[in-house]
Design a protein that fits this description.
globular, Bifunctional nuclease domain, alpha+beta, seven-stranded mixed beta sheet
Length: 161
Amino acid sequence: MAIEMKIKGLVVDPISKMPIVVLVDPASETILPIWIGVFEANAIALNIENIPTPRPMTHDLFKNFLDKLNVSVEKIVVTDVRNNTFYAIIHCRCDERTMLIDSRPSDAIALALRTNSPIFVEEEVVKKAQSLKFDDNLEGSEKLRDWLENLKPEDFGKYKM
């Protein structure tokens, strides 16, 4: 079963200094942190902050292609996590045909933002992610998990690169 989640915000992991997109289940307040690349974080941040770009960025270009081909993005689903790597599927529709496209969650989320499509996460992924090993250092892992669980709205200020 998939859970609809919203983007709570973008933060930088204080240990690895990598960007994290934080998803939240509004019903249960369960959070799901997904470590992403700097370029994908920038694409997400530009959209969250409603910052226009002078030329289309990669995800804007992809959305433009979809629009011209009359393909709609129905939803994105984070489907799995294996070896600390998350997987996602973009669910598209063209006329009466459904298409499933394999994707990194960061790209799928950036596209979902641009197409106003819902973001879902399989329940099993949320369960697996609760036991992810964030770091080889147990003390660091516990501190990071505690930090993520206690994030406040003001911690999600403008994303700085």
